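Exercise 7.
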Amino acid sequence: MEPLRLAGRVVRGPLPFAPWTAAGGPPVVHDGDGVETLAAPTVLPLACPACEAAVVLDVATVLSAEALPARSGQAWVDGLVAAYGLVVRGAGDFRAVVDDLGLLAFPVRLRCTACTRPLLAVLAYGEFQPMRWVATFHGLAVLDG
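Solution. The predicted structure, written as C-alpha coordinates, is:
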Protein backbone atom coordinates (compact mmCIF):
# COMPACT_ATOMS: atom_id res chain seq x y z
CA MET A 1 0.00 0.00 0.00
CA GLU A 2 1.40 3.41 -0.95
CA PRO A 3 1.71 6.22 1.62
CA LEU A 4 -1.67 7.29 2.96
CA ARG A 5 -2.75 10.78 1.97
CA LEU A 6 -6.24 11.78 2.93
CA ALA A 7 -7.96 14.37 0.77
CA GLY A 8 -10.48 15.22 3.46
CA ARG A 9 -11.65 14.54 6.96
CA VAL A 10 -12.65 11.13 8.23
CA VAL A 11 -16.42 10.68 8.27
CA ARG A 12 -17.57 8.52 11.19
CA GLY A 13 -21.26 7.97 10.56
CA PRO A 14 -24.18 7.99 10.80
CA LEU A 15 -24.66 4.24 11.00
CA PRO A 16 -27.98 2.40 10.79
CA PHE A 17 -27.34 0.78 14.19
CA ALA A 18 -24.77 0.64 16.93
CA PRO A 19 -25.47 -1.89 19.69
CA TRP A 20 -22.98 -0.21 21.99
CA THR A 21 -19.88 1.93 21.98
CA ALA A 22 -16.76 1.71 24.07
CA ALA A 23 -16.68 4.72 26.42
CA GLY A 24 -17.93 7.03 23.69
CA GLY A 25 -15.56 5.41 21.19
CA PRO A 26 -16.28 3.82 17.83
CA PRO A 27 -19.62 2.12 17.19
CA VAL A 28 -19.71 -1.67 17.32
CA VAL A 29 -20.99 -2.99 13.98
CA HIS A 30 -20.68 -6.71 14.72
CA ASP A 31 -21.12 -8.40 18.09
CA GLY A 32 -21.13 -12.19 18.06
CA ASP A 33 -20.45 -15.30 20.08
CA GLY A 34 -17.60 -16.65 17.99
CA VAL A 35 -16.18 -16.14 14.51
CA GLU A 36 -18.89 -18.25 12.86
CA THR A 37 -21.43 -15.48 13.47
CA LEU A 38 -19.74 -13.44 10.73
CA ALA A 39 -21.44 -15.68 8.18
CA ALA A 40 -24.52 -13.48 8.48
CA PRO A 41 -23.97 -10.35 6.38
CA THR A 42 -23.73 -7.04 8.17
CA VAL A 43 -23.90 -4.31 5.56
CA LEU A 44 -23.07 -0.74 6.47
CA PRO A 45 -24.76 1.81 4.21
CA LEU A 46 -22.38 4.78 4.20
CA ALA A 47 -22.15 7.99 2.18
CA CYS A 48 -19.14 8.98 0.08
CA PRO A 49 -17.42 11.91 1.84
CA ALA A 50 -16.76 13.51 -1.57
CA CYS A 51 -20.16 13.32 -3.29
CA GLU A 52 -22.61 11.84 -0.72
CA ALA A 53 -23.41 8.88 -3.01
CA ALA A 54 -24.18 5.55 -1.37
CA VAL A 55 -21.21 3.37 -0.47
CA VAL A 56 -21.80 -0.17 0.80
CA LEU A 57 -19.38 -1.91 3.14
CA ASP A 58 -20.01 -5.59 3.99
CA VAL A 59 -18.37 -6.32 7.35
CA ALA A 60 -18.25 -10.11 6.75
CA THR A 61 -16.45 -9.67 3.41
CA VAL A 62 -13.93 -7.26 4.87
CA LEU A 63 -13.06 -9.55 7.75
CA SER A 64 -12.71 -12.66 5.61
CA ALA A 65 -9.49 -14.65 5.44
CA GLU A 66 -8.15 -12.36 2.70
CA ALA A 67 -8.26 -9.23 4.86
CA LEU A 68 -4.94 -8.08 6.29
CA PRO A 69 -4.63 -6.03 9.46
CA ALA A 70 -2.53 -2.87 9.42
CA ARG A 71 1.03 -3.51 10.56
CA SER A 72 3.34 -0.97 12.11
CA GLY A 73 6.49 -0.25 10.13
CA GLN A 74 4.77 0.27 6.78
CA ALA A 75 5.09 3.79 5.36
CA TRP A 76 1.36 4.60 5.38
CA VAL A 77 0.63 3.42 8.92
CA ASP A 78 1.46 6.75 10.62
CA GLY A 79 -1.19 8.47 8.51
CA LEU A 80 -3.71 5.74 9.29
CA VAL A 81 -3.02 5.92 13.03
CA ALA A 82 -3.28 9.72 13.17
CA ALA A 83 -6.36 10.05 10.96
CA TYR A 84 -8.47 7.35 12.57
CA GLY A 85 -7.42 7.72 16.21
CA LEU A 86 -5.70 4.33 16.43
CA VAL A 87 -2.58 3.31 18.37
CA VAL A 88 0.46 1.10 17.79
CA ARG A 89 1.04 -1.51 20.49
CA GLY A 90 3.79 -4.04 21.00
CA ALA A 91 7.48 -4.06 20.10
CA GLY A 92 9.68 -5.27 17.26
CA ASP A 93 7.99 -7.67 14.88
CA PHE A 94 4.98 -7.84 17.18
CA ARG A 95 3.81 -4.25 16.72
CA ALA A 96 0.21 -3.94 15.59
CA VAL A 97 -2.25 -1.13 14.91
CA VAL A 98 -5.22 -1.41 17.28
CA ASP A 99 -8.22 0.60 18.43
CA ASP A 100 -9.12 1.57 21.99
CA LEU A 101 -10.56 -1.92 22.66
CA GLY A 102 -7.32 -3.57 21.53
CA LEU A 103 -8.91 -4.86 18.29
CA LEU A 104 -6.73 -5.17 15.17
CA ALA A 105 -7.35 -2.42 12.60
CA PHE A 106 -8.26 -3.44 9.06
CA PRO A 107 -7.93 -0.73 6.38
CA VAL A 108 -10.36 -1.30 3.50
CA ARG A 109 -9.88 0.25 0.09
CA LEU A 110 -13.10 1.13 -1.72
CA ARG A 111 -14.05 3.20 -4.74
CA CYS A 112 -17.14 5.35 -5.00
CA THR A 113 -19.28 4.14 -7.88
CA ALA A 114 -20.59 7.66 -8.53
CA CYS A 115 -17.55 9.95 -8.44
CA THR A 116 -14.94 7.14 -8.70
CA ARG A 117 -12.81 8.66 -5.92
CA PRO A 118 -10.67 6.19 -3.95
CA LEU A 119 -11.88 5.74 -0.36
CA LEU A 120 -10.43 4.22 2.78
CA ALA A 121 -12.66 2.71 5.45
CA VAL A 122 -11.25 1.33 8.70
CA LEU A 123 -12.77 -1.48 10.72
CA ALA A 124 -11.21 -3.15 13.74
CA TYR A 125 -11.92 -6.74 14.70
CA GLY A 126 -11.01 -9.22 17.38
CA GLU A 127 -11.95 -11.17 20.45
CA PHE A 128 -13.25 -8.68 23.00
CA GLN A 129 -13.68 -11.22 25.79
CA PRO A 130 -13.59 -15.02 25.69
CA MET A 131 -15.75 -16.21 22.79
CA ARG A 132 -17.17 -12.79 22.06
CA TRP A 133 -15.97 -11.27 18.79
CA VAL A 134 -16.66 -7.65 17.90
CA ALA A 135 -15.98 -5.32 14.98
CA THR A 136 -15.88 -1.54 15.29
CA PHE A 137 -16.21 1.07 12.55
CA HIS A 138 -13.68 3.92 12.63
CA GLY A 139 -14.60 5.93 9.58
CA LEU A 140 -14.51 6.50 5.87
CA ALA A 141 -12.27 9.03 4.12
CA VAL A 142 -11.42 10.10 0.58
CA LEU A 143 -7.87 9.26 -0.46
CA ASP A 144 -5.77 11.71 -2.40
CA GLY A 145 -4.94 10.09 -5.72
